Task: structure prediction
Amino acid sequence: VTRWAYGLLSVVATTSLAGCGAPTGSTPTEQSTPGPHVAVVLTDDGCKPSETTVSAGTVTFDVTNTGSGAVTELELQRNGRILAEKENIAPGLNGHFSITLTPGSYELYCPGGSGPANQPLTVHAAPSTSSTPTTAP
Amino acid sequence: LASLIGRVRTVLATFVIGLREGLEASLIVGIIAAFLRQQGKPRLVRQVLVGAGCAALICMAAGVGLTVLNAELPQRQQEAMETVIGLFAVAMVTYMVVWMARHAQGLKQELERSAADALVTGTAGALVAMAFLAVLREGLETVVFLIATFNASTSATAAAGGAILGILVAIAVGYGIYRGGVRLNLARFFRVTGAVLVLIAAGLLATAAHTAHEAGWIDVGQTPVLDLSWLVRPGTPWSSLFTGMLGIQPRPVVLEVLLWVFYLVPMSAFVLWPRHRRSPHASAATAGATQ
Result:
């Protein structure tokens, strides 16, 4: 009986905490992460990044989904190796991940859509002076 | 009307993900519970449920912790954990299949029954642990997903509702497997589940190959060889069943297909082969031999 009580308690805690976290959690994270941001929109065709080239360093990928649910994940790959990913981005949800990238060719991979699943992404050397972060729209 | 259609689409999209993540856990828990119940171990069934419940609570606490700390789910570590537990599940299910195939013959014998009791008691801990781990494997990702639906930018209620509905249906399916498994008589249960378990274990192995790649452990054999997206159409409830229960990806890669085939073919042969040849005569002889 006590176990079920704990279970109920934690369900209540989960919902209430998630509710409290909602207004403060979602937007500030995207702005507080330094470095360039790439906005990636998942559609039923595949995905579309806001930039195809980005400067080296810590890059943050902000993922949103405007499709109907055929595509729900974004992977960042280099030579077929998965470097980072974000799964279960259903329509209306958003997510983000940051990763430090060195110059070279990368691919964004969003399986499940009707169009091509791969989108190229080029990372070029960061300027030696203070880098100007490209902000996502 | 457009907003209503949009809302229904949102419900469906999150339902599909909740169902898939939930099925991956509830399937194993349901099978283990049915197996133990068939062995006349209702107390162990309760332990399985407690174990699964504890894992669910740990996942909820961890999910809430991640949200409070505003941290991302460490995806690589998550995939690594899924791989290790997945391989453990393959070993466990394989053991169950082999054990059932060996014992399917002399089930009516009281002697066999007590031998079975001893065997099950010996591995009960592992079975309970497996149920716990199965929920832990998918639970964290599911909780993180669920919390994300609460924060959905558009129609959060629809998104969260769909996800919760998907998880509830997955639990109902797990319970259905348990009830169905309990209702079958023991000999039938062994025969039916033997074949189904081989299929499920092959899927678990393919899924482990998939998650191992996502964990960054394996990079070989990653060329897609089949396009099953006509069958496993991404974003449909049907695809949740195929991917969640049978581990079939829409576009499986070489390694996944190879592992699937190399597990499925010999194991199916092992489970199905002696059954065709066994006559009442043969099983009487085996029963006689054990006495």
Chain B touches chain A through 51 residues (CB under 8 Å).
